[in-house]
């Protein structure tokens, strides 16, 4: 009698890139569905940067010197960067903490799904949310404060690479920082605190950044928040406003180098610190 031998199914870790990408896209669709199902969280996530822009832009709306640019417009350009960071770094850091605590990560780790598919799904989530946030802040900035959209292909190209590098860096850092909170309950406070502090010292809320103490600007220059917001200011503001930056120029080359370096740092931190399960107590 001939015996039938059944070969074991191939492990998901050895799936070809196309298969992993297909699973990642499916995971991304699920992440988006789950995210937009929580309507109160969606409203808060998207509205907070826009509400801050409306309030601060209305309070500090006077013209800056003889530039013809108001502080509201200066604030709006920086808030675009803050919105991208909020929907990537903060949303991802808190979301992964929740996935870890409720057992989602542990269950996914026990399935044939490749780990890369989970992270592809998360990246799709933050990319869609970041695009939506940028559109919302641009709408508020143009309608309420007269912010001008870029008028040249070069400006749009700068917008594209600042957005892409900033999103990649903050996504990786959001994944890395998700391991810091001891629980999902403490995650919003732990993750929002450094982001909020960096917004103040990076010239997001207090404009122009040159009015801040030199030490604060030096500290801010180490982190990506300042460079993302400065990059977006170079896109939406006249070139004359570069004189109000600490170096007197937009420093786009340095912006690309710093954001690229933070992508590398974020990736290294993810590989070294990411945990699929919670800490043992």
TrEMBL record:
GO cellular component: ATP-binding cassette (ABC) transporter complex
Cellular compartment(s): Cell membrane; Membrane
Predominant location category: membrane
Keywords: Antibiotic resistance, Cell membrane, Membrane, Transmembrane, Transmembrane helix, Transport
Residue ranges occupied by any ABC transmembrane type-2 domain in the UniProt entry: 40-277
Membrane topology: Multi-pass membrane protein
GO-annotated molecular function: ABC-type transporter activity
Record-annotated membrane-spanning stretches: 41-62, 74-98, 119-144, 156-177, 189-211, 256-274
GO biological process, one term: response to antibiotic
Keyword Transport annotated: yes
Family, as annotated: Belongs to the ABC-2 integral membrane protein family.
Name listed for the protein in its UniProt record: Transport permease protein
């Amino acid at each position: 009698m001939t015996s039938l031998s059944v070969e074991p199914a191939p492990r998901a870790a050895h799936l070809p890139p196309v298969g992993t990408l297909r699973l990642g896209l499916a995971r991304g669709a699920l992440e988006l569905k789950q995210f937009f199902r929580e309507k109160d969280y969606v409203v808060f996530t998207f509205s907070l940067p826009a509400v801050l822009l409306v309030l601060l832009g209305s309070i500090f709306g006077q013209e800056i010197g003889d530039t013809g640019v108001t502080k509201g417009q200066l604030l709006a350009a920086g808030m675009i960067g803050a919105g991208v960071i909020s929907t990537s770094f903060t949303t991802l850091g808190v979301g992964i903490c929740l996935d870890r605590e409720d057992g989602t990560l542990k269950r996914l780790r026990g399935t044939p799904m490749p780990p890369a598919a989970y992270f592809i799904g998360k990246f799709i989530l933050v990319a869609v949310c970041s695009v939506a946030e940028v559109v919302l802040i641009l709408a508020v900035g143009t309608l309420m404060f007269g912010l001008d959209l870029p008028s040249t292909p070069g400006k749009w190209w700068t917008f594209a690479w600042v957005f892409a590098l900033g999103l990649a860096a903050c996504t990786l850092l959001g994944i890395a920082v998700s391991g810091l909170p001891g629980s999902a309950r403490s995650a919003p406070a732990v993750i929002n605190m450094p982001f909020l502090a960096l917004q103040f010292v990076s010239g997001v809320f207090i404009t122009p950044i040159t009015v801040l103490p030199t030490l604060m600007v030096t500290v801010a220059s180490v982190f990506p928040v300042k460079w993302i917001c400065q990059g977006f200011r170079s896109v939406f503001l006249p070139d004359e406003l570069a004189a109000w930056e600490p170096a007197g120029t937009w420093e786009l080359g340095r912006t690309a180098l710093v954001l690229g370096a933070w992508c590398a740092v974020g990736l290294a931190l993810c590989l070294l610190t990411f945990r699929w399960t919670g800490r043992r107590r």
